[in-house]
Structure formats: structure tokens, C-alpha cells
Amino acid sequence: MALTALSEALDQILATADSLPETDWVSLETALWRYAAEPVTSGLAVPPADNSAMDGYAVQAATVPGELVISQRIPAGHAPVALEPGTAARIFTGAEIPPGANAVILQEDTERVGEHVRFPAAQQGQHIRRQGSDIRPGDELIPRGHCIKPQDVGLLASVGIDVVGVFRPLKVAVLTTGDELRGPGSGELAPGQIFNSNRFSLGAQIQALGMTVVDLDNIPDDPDRIGEALERAASVADCIVTAGGVSVGEEDHVRGQIEKRGKLSLWKLAIKPGKPLAFGEVAGTPIFGLPGNPVSAWMTFALVAKPWLIRRQGGRVPALPRFPVQADFELPRPGTREEFLRVRLAGAGTSMRATLTGSQSSGVLSSLSQADGIAVIAPGVTVAAGDWLPVIPVSALLGPDCA
After folding, report:
1. CATH number for the domain formed by residue range(s) 23-45+134-167
2. CATH superfamily of 6-21+169-313
3. Cα separation of 265 and 223, whole Å?
4. How does pLDDT run across 338-368, given as a tens digit for each residue?
């Protein structure tokens, strides 16, 4: 099977995310990072009435400059009375403008003169936040499929909304395969053994999306046990994510079990790291078979599985942001696959530069942990120091896409 370009694979994979989870109604306190199941509109105006943007005095602009007596005091949260002609009202930030006033003069621009206050000239409307200038009744606050961010929670609270319709979090089954894998904390490693990082890394990536992890632990390199685990995962989850067993080795059994118990739709991506990725279904449940090398597993999840999961969750999948950065390294030999290099960024603006975080081997997790950017190198391209490269922020590969 020929290698598939990442863009083509994404189009193919995202086209299969054609169903949506059930809807939950949740309190505003638990709506963070959930995806809106329906548009949310405002039933009122914000601000609900003209109010003061500053501490100062509410006046009728035509009565200043001059000295005026203070006829009332209006703290925020207290209803004003109509402004007496030829007077001023002491007013505080957020307090409602009294009828008859049409300007606010800053406290520091005034001078106390006995029982009066001396005011400079004022323009009508100055320092007044108009009713509905932020939100009008009927305005759409949250579109369907929008990932609810912390600032969205505040926005909804500002119009009195305390319950939101959201899509139920997906259940994602995670299992790893390999006789050599041991769990952290299980004691000293025997020769040939390594600690299982993928189980925890993938679980964390799924949790960062606000989805539920169904942890099926590690399965030895036995085709029957792997097949049984896949069927068990298919019965309890909306999607299955595996790590290991999808390459061409004699002990790589996951791919064969997908084909035996379901269907393989895609295998092998034209990317580095992450070539041996399998996508298909087992017993009707979608499955992503990720490579076993830790960086490859992390990268293919972020680039391929995450967009599908978000689309299947009911969210929108924007293009990953990329910005130009100058290379502080060289890549003299062109590759045949699209390459994603872990880099550390320094500087700002047009002086920002990218340095490799160390070995770019697909098994070196430290280079990923130290990276804050991923430099994208097209096939057939060499890199010289000073060349401009597109870089994806690592933060854009983590958590929900809340564009």
C-alpha cells in the first residue's frame, strides 16, 4: 500500500466522522471544554442600561464648564433617580446613568470648591457604556460545535445563562501492545524491557480533549489476545486508539487483527515520525492504530486522531496555525516524507528562531517534552541556517481546538 499524504489522509478520515454523540444539559460550572450541541443566544442586553465607564460625575453636558452642586450619589447596583437640572451626580464605575445626564466627567478632572464641584467642558456620551453595546437581545453567543472556553463561561454568565446543551464526551478505549512493556512502578526492568509511556501519554492526550479514557492496559504480543481486546474495546467505546503492532514485523499483530475483525481503510502515512498508522474499524467501532515509538504515537495522535475525535465529538476542526520562524539548524539531506521536527523557539517577531531540541529519533521523548514548536519540512526540501520555516505551536496540538 502506497504512503498517503497527511492532507489526503485527513480528508479521508474526517469524512467518516459522520455521527454525533448524545446531548447533555450541564451547569455552567461544568461546561468548560465541552462542545455546544446547539447555538446559544442572549435573551437580554449587555449592559442592560447605559452605565458609567469610570468613577466620576454624571452631568448634562450643556451645563459645563462651571460649578455644580452634587444632588445624588450612585454606586454600582443602585438605581438612580432623574438628575436634577443644573446639578451633577457622583457616580461610580458600572453604575447606571441617571435620566437627564448624558456625559461622565472623570473624578481627577474636577476640583472641589466648597459645597460645589468645578467641572471642565464635556462632550455628550463621553465615558458612557451604552445599553446593548456589548450584547443585544437575540445575539448568538456560542455557535453549535464551539468548544466552550473559560472566557465563554464568563460570557454566558453575563447574560444569566446557567445551563448549556453540550455533546456527551466520547469514550475512547486505549490499549498498547508489546511483550517488552512494563508499567511504571512495577519494579526494576529485566533485560529487553522498557516502561510503557504510550499508555499514559495517549491517555493524557485524550483527557486533555475532555473525553473519557477507557484504559485496557497493555496486551502481550499474542494475536488472539489482541483481537479479543479489540473486540472488547469496540463494545464499550466510541473509538479505539492503540499503540504498537501496526508495522510490518512478525510480532506486529494489530493491523492483522483489524483486518480480521473489521476493516482497514488506511495504512502508512507519508510523514516522519509516524509512518505506520492504521485507520479502520473493528466491529463497527473506528480504530486508530498508532505506531509504537513514543514520539510517533504522540505526533500521529495529535495530527490525525485528534482532529477526527473533535469532529466526531461535534466540534469544528480549524486548520493548525503555522507561523514563519528562522531555522537555527541545518538539514542538508532532503527527505521523502513530510517531516515534523521538535524545536525550541527563542526571540520574537521577525527575530524568532528555532533550534532543534536534540535527537529527532521517534523514540526520544525528551526532545518532545522540551519543544514548544513543531517545524514542518516538506518532502524534498533541505534546510540551511537562516531559512524561514513554518512552525506549529505545540500548544495547538494539545487539548481541544477552541478556535
Report:
1. 3.90.105.10
2. MoaB/Mog-like domain (3.40.980.10)
3. 20
4. 999 999 999 988 889 999 999 999 999 999 9
